[in-house]
Amino acid sequence: MADLAIEAGRGRGSSAPRSRPRRVALTRVLPLVPAVALLLLFLAGPIVYSLYGSLTNTALTGYKAANPDFIGLDNYANLFSSPEFWKSVWLTVLFVGASAVIGQNVLGMLLALLMRSSVRPLRSIVGGLVVTAWVLPEIVAAFALYAFFSTDGTLNSMLGWIGLDGTTWLITFPMFAVIMANIWRGTAFSMMVYNAALSEVPPEITEAAEIDGAGTVQRFFRITLPMIRRSISTNLMLTTLQTLGVFTLIWVMTGGGPGTASSTLPVLAYQQAFKFSQVGYGTAIATVTLAVGAIFSIVYIKALKPEVD
Fold first, then answer.
1. Is it true that the peptide bond before 83 is cis, omega within 30 degrees of 0?
2. Strand, coil or helix: what is 258?
């Protein structure tokens, strides 16, 4: 009996350490519950509702607006067999790749490097001018860029000053116009990210490489870039996802035209849903755009994972 009492006491004593980790885990999890609930309500909820809407033939007006039918994957079957959709996919890839992945990131890095090597007054002026484009409301920036690229706009006037003929940029080269506009609009963010990242690079490392005979280009590619790799990946992810959802800039400047010459996926979704009243079909395009953004996010998140030795 004494042995049984001792064992029982040991059992009761051993339960205390087990319950303590559970209490600690609950203490850590409970503060996250409100945030998770808000995410489920305002993020997951609309996504699920959008996914369901893409499986219906909901219209903007008429009988199908109030009484849509569930049609399964018909919208997606029509979507993937449409040449217009694949053209829009290509335009989206071109727009994101040229204006965000290449344009904003490369120009942002160059501006960050130039600002760090320039005198303070020039650095303040350039930084202020670049950031102004970023802090402007998107609708204001869109109308300003429309005026810049229009037939009688600033760009053609500047070309006329040096004896060159202008052109109808928004009609002849609509994608070039919106790509350049988005670069101008978003470069400031990349510049600030890279300026902060470059300030964290220890100067003694670059000085040691310089003493060893490494040139400016070698120091940049072999020392600076590897040390700010995670900042580059983070900025690539943010600029890619932001550019993937750009709508106002393109819609104000070209309206997706002429025809569908500048209709990226967000613009095509808007046109199908609100111009042609095919809300279910437009929602399917928006859902595909969301899936593309998720794929980009997964790729960049994997790139951001710390290396395991």
1. no
2. coil
211-250 pLDDT, tens per residue? 777 777 888 888 888 888 888 888 998 899 899 989 999 9
Tokens, residue 177 = 């116009």
Tokens describing residue 171:
């009609």
The 10 Å CB-count burial string (b at 16+, else e) for 219-256 is beeebbeebbeebbbbbbbbbbbbbbebbebbbbbbeb
User: Taking the CA atoms of the chain, what radius of gyration do you get in angstroms?
Assistant: 27
Report how far apart, in Å, the C-alpha atoms of 78 and of each of 52, 75, 84, 186, 282 are. 17, 5, 11, 34, 11
Q: What are phi and psi of 56, to 5 degrees?
A: -125, 170
Confidence of residue 1 (pLDDT cuts 50, 70, 90): very low
Residue 56, strand partner residues: 70
The type of residue at 283 is T
